[in-house]
C-alpha cells in the first residue's frame, strides 16, 4: 500500500441538453478535431484516461447505424500510446434526443449501446456507463437546470433509479462480451453541515449523498431508511428489484470539489438573498462549508476515507479540478494527491487520482445552462491549440515526488483565514497545522505605481508570498540588482517599474530608455542567470497602427514615437532570454488609481465637467486586476516571449469614456469626441492600437471590466 496511486486523466466531455439545445464539451474544447491531443495527454504519464464513447455522439438517431469513425481512430491511438481507456457512455446527459432520464426506455436503450460498444472494443476493461448519476438526477429533475427540467422529488428519484437500472443493464451487456469488465462508478461526494435547528435536513442530505452507490451495492432494502423515502413515492417495488440483483462497483469513484461540502444555516439574515432557500418547511441559507466552518472540514481526504469506510471497496479520486487562478489550481491538485497518499498510508485502498478537465471546461460557471466562460485545465485550449500550463508539470511530477512550484506549497484559500465570508461556525474538527510559507517569494519591483500595487493586491488575495519594492527601495537600473536578487532568492520577478509618461519620452528619450529598456533587459538577463522567470511590460505603442485589424504577437513592431521605440528595444533585448516573459497591453484602468485616463474621466464627470478625448484612435482598454491575474498565471506557467493581454474589445478613446460614464452612472453625453490633433499630444500614437492574441484567450470583456471598475469605485470601503 506504500506505492503511490496510479495517475489517471480525464477530459471534460459532458453532452448536456437545455431545452432543445445540446452542448458538447468535446466540440467546445476542439478535441473533436485534434487526435494529436492524446499524445500530449499520454506525455503526462497517465496510466488510464476517462474517455467518452457517448451514446448521443455515436448513435444520435433512433434506428440509425452507429458511427464509430471518431472513436475508432482515437481508441487505436490510445492503445498505441499504452493508455487504458475508462469508457464513459453517458456524461451528465439525457441520452439522444429521442429519450431522457425519465423515459421508461432509457435503461434498455443504454444497455443496447453498451453492448455495441463492448462488441466493437472488447479489449476495454474499465467502464463508467453513467457519470455521476445522483448529481445528474439533481440537476435535471430536482433543480431543473437540464433536460427534462423537472423540479420535484419524485422525478428526482425516478431519474436516479432509471440511471441505476441503466448502469446495471449496461454492465450486464458489457460483461456478456468482457466477463471481467470492471465498473468504475463516479459521483460527487461531499458532506452537509448545519446549525442545530437544521440537523434533520443535514442528516437527510448526508443519507441522500450515498443513494446512487447504495442502490448499486444492493444496500437499499426495507430495513434501510432510504427505502421508506423511495416507497413514499411509489418506487418501492423498483428498489426491491435492484436490491435483489445489485451491480456493486469495482471502484468507487469519488469526485469532490470546493462546492461539495455544504453548510445550512437557519439564520438567513447573515447571508445574501442569492443563498436563501428552504425545504418547504424551514427557510435556510445554503453555502460552501469552507466559507463558514472553522476549523475547515476535512475536504477530499475525508470524502475518500468515508467512502472506504462505508463500502470497503477500492476508491479512486476520479475528478480533480479547480476552476480558479493557476496557483489555486496547483494547490488543489497537490492537496488531492497528498490526501490520497496519506489515506493509502493509513490502509485505505486508493487506486488512482485523476487529473480532470485536462483540456479545460466551458460554461460550468453557469452550470452549463448557457453562456459562461472557458476555464483552462492542465492544458489551455482557449486559442484552439493546447498549451501546457503549470499543472502539466505538477501532475507529471507528483507520482515521482518531484519538487513543486513554490506557490503550490502554500495554503489554498479554503485553508486560509480569509476564506470566511460569514460569521464562523465550529466544525467540531481539530485544526490542522498551517503549512510553512515557502522560502522563495515573488519579487515585485515598482510596487508604488498603479500596476505594481495591483500585483501586491493580487498576491495578497491569492496567498502568494511576495516581496514588494518601490522604485526608491530597489531601482531596476541599479548595478547592485543582481546581488539583491540573489539575496532575496525569488521564484520570479515582476518588473512594474517604468517611465509611463508617453509625451515626456519625446523630450527625454535617454532617461526613459535607461529604465524602460536598459534596466528591464538587464533585469531579465540577471534573472535568467539564476534560472528565475521574469515579467516585463510593453504596449500597443510598438505598432504603427496602420492596419485595419487588431494586432497580434507576430505582427512586426513599427513604433511611431520615442516611448514605442524604447519598448520595442526592450522586447528585442528580452528575445531569447530564458524565462523572459513580455506582456503587451494597452489603456490600463484600475479602480484604485487616482491618476490616468479613467480616473480623470470619472473625476471630471462627477464634477459636471465635459471630457474631450479622441474619437479617431482605437485602443483595447484593459482592466488592471484581470491583466494582473492573467500575467501571474503566465509567469507561473513559465511562459516566455511576447504575449498580448487586454480586454479584447477595440473601441475609440471617446467610446471607452462613454462606456465608462454609463457604467459609473454619469452622463455619457458630456463625452466630446475630437480629432487627436486637437488634444496637444507631443508623441504620435497609432491610430489603430487594438490588440488581439493568437496565443491566449483574452481574460474578459470590456463590459465585465467596466462593471467591476464601477462596483469598486462605488464601494463604501474604498
UniProtKB/TrEMBL annotation:
Q: In which pathway does it act?
A: Carbohydrate biosynthesis; dTDP-L-rhamnose biosynthesis
| Cofactor binding: number and manner | Binds 1 Mg(2+) ion per monomer.
> Keywords assigned by UniProt?
NADP, Oxidoreductase
Query: Per its UniProt record, what Pfam families does this chain match?
Result: RmlD_sub_bind
Q: Which residues form the RmlD-like substrate binding domain?
A: 442-697
Enumerate the cofactors the protein uses: Mg(2+)
Look at the named UniProt entry and state the broad enzyme category this protein falls under: oxidoreductase
Q: In UniProt terms, what function does this protein have?
A: Catalyzes the reduction of dTDP-6-deoxy-L-lyxo-4-hexulose to yield dTDP-L-rhamnose.
This chain belongs to the protein called dTDP-4-dehydrorhamnose reductase
The scientific name of the source species is Sphingomonas corticis
The upper taxonomy is: Bacteria, Pseudomonadati, Pseudomonadota, Alphaproteobacteria, Sphingomonadales
Amino acid at each position: 500500500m506504500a506505492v503511490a496511486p496510479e495517475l489517471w486523466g480525464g477530459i471534460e466531455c459532458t453532452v448536456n441538453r437545455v431545452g432543445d439545445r445540446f452542448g458538447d464539451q468535446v466540440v467546445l474544447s476542439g478535441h473533436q478535431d485534434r487526435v494529436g491531443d492524446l499524445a500530449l495527454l499520454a506525455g503526462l504519464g497517465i496510466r488510464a484516461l476517462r474517455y467518452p464513447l457517448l451514446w448521443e455522439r455515436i448513435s444520435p438517431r433512433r434506428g440509425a447505424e452507429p458511427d464509430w469513425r471518431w472513436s475508432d481512430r482515437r481508441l487505436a491511438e490510445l492503445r498505441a500510446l499504452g493508455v487504458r481507456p475508462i469508457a464513459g457512455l453517458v456524461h451528465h446527459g439525457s441520452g439522444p434526443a429521442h429519450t431522457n432520464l425519465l423515459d421508461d426506455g432509457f435503461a434498455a436503450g443504454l444497455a443496447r449501446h453498451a453492448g455495441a460498444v463492448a462488441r466493437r472494443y472488447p479489449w476495454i476493461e474499465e467502464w463508467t456507463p453513467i457519470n455521476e448519476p445522483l448529481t445528474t438526477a439533481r440537476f435535471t429533475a430536482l433543480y431543473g437546470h437540464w433536460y427534462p427540467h423537472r423540479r420535484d422529488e419524485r422525478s428526482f428519484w425516478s431519474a436516479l433509479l432509471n440511471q441505476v437500472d441503466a448502469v446495471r443493464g449496461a454492465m450486464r451487456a458489457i460483461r456478456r462480451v468482457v466477463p471481467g469488465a470492471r465498473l468504475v462508478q463516479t459521483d460527487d461526494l461531499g458532506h452537509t453541515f448545519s446549525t442545530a435547528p437544521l440537523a434533520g435536513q443535514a442528516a437527510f442530505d448526508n443519507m441522500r449523498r450515498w443513494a446512487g452507490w447504495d442502490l448499486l451495492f444492493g444496500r437499499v432494502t426495507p430495513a434501510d431508511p432510504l427505502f421508506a423515502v423511495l416507497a413514499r413515492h411509489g418506487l418501492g417495488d423498483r428498489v426491491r428489484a435492484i436490491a435483489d440483483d445489485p451491480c456493486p462497483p469495482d471502484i468507487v469513484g469519488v469526485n469532490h470539489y470546493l462546492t461539495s461540502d455544504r453548510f445550512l444555516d437557519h439564520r438567513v439574515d447573515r447571508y445574501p438573498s442569492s443563498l436563501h432557500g428552504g425545504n418547504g418547511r424551514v427557510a435556510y441559507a445554503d453555502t460552501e462549508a469552507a466559507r463558514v466552518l472553522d476549523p475547515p472540514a476535512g475536504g477530499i481526504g475525508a470524502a475518500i476515507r468515508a467512502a472506504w469506510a462505508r463500502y470497503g471497496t477500492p476508491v479512486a479520486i476520479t475528478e480533480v479540478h479547480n476552476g480558479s487562478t493557476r496557483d489555486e489550481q496547483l494547490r488543489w491538485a497537490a492537496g488531492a494527491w497528498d490526501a490520497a497518499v496519506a489515506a493509502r498510508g493509513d490502509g485505505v485502498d486508493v487506486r488512482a487520482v485523476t487529473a480532470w478537465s485536462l483540456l479545460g471546461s466551458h460554461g460550468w460557471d453557469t452550470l452549463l445552462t448557457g453562456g459562461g466562460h472557458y476555464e483552462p485545465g492542465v492544458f489551455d485550449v482557449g486559442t484552439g491549440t493546447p498549451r501546457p500550463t503549470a499543472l502539466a508539470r505538477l501532475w507529471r511530477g507528483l507520482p515521482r515526488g518531484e519538487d513543486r512550484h513554490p506557490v503550490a506549497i502554500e495554503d489554498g484559500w479554503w485553508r486560509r483565514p480569509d476564506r470566511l465570508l460569514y460569521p464562523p461556525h465550529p466544525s467540531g474538527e481539530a485544526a490542522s497545522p498551517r503549512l510553512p510559507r515557502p522560502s522563495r517569494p515573488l519579487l515585485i519591483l515598482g510596487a508604488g505605481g498603479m500596476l505594481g500595487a495591483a500585483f501586491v493586491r493580487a498576491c495578497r488575495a491569492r496567498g502568494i508570498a511576495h516581496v514588494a519594492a518601490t522604485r526608491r527601495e530597489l531601482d531596476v537600473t541599479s548595478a547592485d540588482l543582481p546581488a539583491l536578487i540573489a539575496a532575496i532568492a525569488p521564484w520570479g520577478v515582476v518588473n512594474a517599474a517604468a517611465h509611463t509618461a508617453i509625451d515626456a519620452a519625446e523630450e527625454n528619450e535617454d532617461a526613459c530608455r535607461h529604465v524602460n529598456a536598459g534596466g528591464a533587459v538587464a533585469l531579465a538577463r540577471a534573472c535568467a542567470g539564476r534560472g528565475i522567470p521574469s515579467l516585463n511590460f510593453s504596449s500597443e505603442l510598438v505598432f504603427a497602427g496602420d492596419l485595419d485589424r487588431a494586432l497580434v504577437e507576430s505582427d512586426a513592431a513599427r513604433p511611431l514615437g520615442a516611448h514605442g521605440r524604447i519598448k520595442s528595444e526592450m522586447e528585442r533585448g528580452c528575445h531569447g532570454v530564458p524565462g523572459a516573459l513580455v506582456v503587451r497591453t494597452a489603456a490600463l484602468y484600475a479602480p484604485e488609481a487616482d491618476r490616468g485616463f479613467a480616473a480623470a474621466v470619472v473625476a471630471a464627470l462627477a464634477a459636471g465637467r465635459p471630457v474631450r478625448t479622441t474619437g479617431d484612435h482605437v485602443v483595447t482598454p484593459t482592466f488592471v486586476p484581470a491583466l494582473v491575474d492573467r500575467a501571474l498565471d503566465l509567469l507561473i506557467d513559465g511562459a516566455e516571449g511576447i504575449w498580448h493581454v487586454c480586454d479584447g474589445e477595440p473601441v475609440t478613446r471617446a467610446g471607452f469614456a462613454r462606456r465608462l460614464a454609463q457604467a459609473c452612472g454619469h452622463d455619457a453625453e458630456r463625452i466630446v469626441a475630437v480629432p487627436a490633433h486637437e488634444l496637444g499630444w507631443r508623441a504620435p500614437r497609432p491610430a489603430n492600437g487594438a490588440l488581439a492574441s493568437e496565443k491566449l484567450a483574452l481574460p474578459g470583456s470590456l463590459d465585465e471590466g467596466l462593471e467591476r471598475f464601477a462596483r469598486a469605485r462605488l464601494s463604501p470601503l474604498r
